[in-house]
Amino acid sequence: MGGRLLCRYRHNYGAYKMSELAKNEFGEKWAAIEVKDAFLQHGTRFESFYCAFCDIPVSPVACYGDEFVKAPHFAKLKSDHADLCPYGKAGLVAYGINRKSTSATYKFEVDLPERLVPIRAARAGTTPKAIKPSPNYPSDDEIKTRVKDSAGNLEIANQYTTSLLRTLAAARRTALSQLYKLPEAKKLADDAKALNNFVFGELAKAPLKLYEEKTNYKNAFHGIGKKPWNGRFIYFGDAKASQSPTGFTLTAENGPPNEPPLTIRMPVSVHVKCDISHPVNLMERKTNECLLECIATDAKVYWFAYGALVLNEARDGYELRVELPEHIYVSTKKP
Ligand SMILES: [Zn+2]
């Protein structure tokens, strides 16, 4: 492979076309990635967005979809950003913020989120009054002040993060399907082991941080059937769902093996905490609907869950506890 990186971790941003931090009609600053998370989690849609620094109208792209396609961002509409705007000619670099370079070159058209972060707090109870930015665009000094005041926000907006496991699961699935289609992979079609080594070797080159834990797209994810792992990961598998006093339990029989000699597969129980009759948000409602459907039809559920897989007290099975709706993704379709 001659040191070429297979994955293109981020979109190659056109120099002045895209931006990732904007103000909504209430004057609140939102990163495009947060807009997408809020849409998936709560169904939130804002009416309009303006550049956080120079007030030109911008439009959310790849923010209001149900599917993972590419990194959410804001595109300018008619007017260009002000020259001094970090999204204008000045660029983020002028303000000491460097985008991670997208040196990777292969034909691998997928933007992979780089980090799992805590979800943005829900909006305050009172709805703020919609505001429109003044028709006079801000002065150069005002733009500089705004950038200084939001340096932290800007840094976050500049990193492709997500707070939803669902987005990471979709990103990985897209990456895998693209990797298997590469000519290099097709050459290995007759050798399953070599093919897997190739595909997962490339996946391992895509960095991912799970909160503060540095890992990659291979090691962050574990099917439940292998050795018991230590730490918090994104586990996946299939299971039968049932209701429990605190929500649902997903039960899989093909979990990690027992202690050496590692001959017997132990069952895994994923305990999903949720309020079935009063879901806290859209994401929890969708999880509930999917699991109730699986129970009603006695169908398998395919799941991804973030957390630690630990031996239960009786030492006859493993458990994973999911407390947050954004830490579980379930589907009736095989991923
Ligand atoms: Zn701007």
Description:
The protein is an alpha+beta fold and 335 residues long. It folds into 2 domains: 1-219, no CATH class; 222-331, OB fold (Dihydrolipoamide Acetyltransferase, E2P). It contains 7 helices and 18 strands. Strands 11, 12, 13, 14, 15, 16, 17 and 18 form an 8-stranded mixed sheet that branches. Strands 1-6-5-4-2-3 form a 6-stranded antiparallel sheet. Strands 8-7-9-10 form a 4-stranded mixed sheet. The longest helix has 17 residues, at 165-181. Mean pLDDT is 84; it is low at 1-17 and 101-107. Zinc ion is lined by residues 51, 53-54, 56, 81-82, 85, 87-88.
Query: What would the principal axes of the Cα set say about the shape?
Result: globular
Overall mean confidence score, pLDDT: 84
Question: From N to C, what is the helix and strand string?
Answer: EEEHEEEEHHEHHHEEEEEEHEEEE
What is the domain tally?
2
Beta-strand fraction estimate:
15-25%
Radius of gyration: 22 Å
Number of strands: 18
Structural class: alpha+beta
Largest sheet: 8 strands, mixed
Small molecules bound:
zinc ion
Number of helices: 7
Distance between the termini: 28 Å
Percentage of residues in helical conformation:
10-25%
Give the low-pLDDT segments: 1-17, 101-107
Which labels suit this protein?
335 residues, alpha+beta, OB fold (Dihydrolipoamide Acetyltransferase, E2P), 2 domains, 6-stranded antiparallel β-sheet, disordered N terminus, binds zinc ion
List the topology elements:
Blueprint: E1 18-19, E2 21-24, E3 29-31, H1 32-42, E4 49-51, E5 57-61, E6 73-76, E7 115-116, H2 140-149, H3 151-157, E8 161-162, H4 165-181, H5 183-186, H6 192-203, E9 207-210, E10 213-216, E11 221-223, E12 232-244, E13 247-252, E14 268-273, H7 282-297, E15 301-308, E16 310-311, E17 318-322, E18 328-331
Parallel strand pairs: 7-8, 7-9, 11-12, 14-17
Antiparallel strand pairs: 1-6, 2-3, 2-4, 4-5, 5-6, 9-10, 12-13, 12-15, 13-14, 15-18, 16-17
Helix pairs in contact: 4-6
The structure holds zinc ion (ZN).
